[in-house]
Amino acid sequence: MKTIFVQFKCRPGMAYQVADELVLEVQEISEVFSTSGHYDLIAKFYLADDQDIGRFVTERLQVLEGVADTFTLVAFKAFT
């Protein structure tokens, strides 16, 4: 399993709609939060080891209505 975090810049007034769409339509999502700063949302996803991160982000996330830009981070290790 691979863990990625994706930050979303949304079109004005669309952040809540994008968050709802992520939760309802993207089964790989774990959590989504609203944020302040350059991006409106950050979401955590778990992908299968053989799943292509680039294709997942460009074909499943960037095409959602209201998404203006994304920034992807790959996580290597979780500390507890």
TrEMBL record:
Question: Per its UniProt record, what InterPro entries does this chain match?
Answer: Dimeric_a/b-barrel, Tscrpt_reg_AsnC/Lrp_C
Q: Where is the signal peptide?
A: none
Q: One Pfam family name from the record?
A: AsnC_trans_reg
List, alphabetically, the Gene3D superfamilies matched: 3.30.70.920
Q: Looking at the record's lineage, which domain of life comes first?
A: Bacteria
Domain Transcription regulator AsnC/Lrp ligand binding intervals: 6-77
Protein name in UniProt: Lrp/AsnC ligand binding domain-containing protein
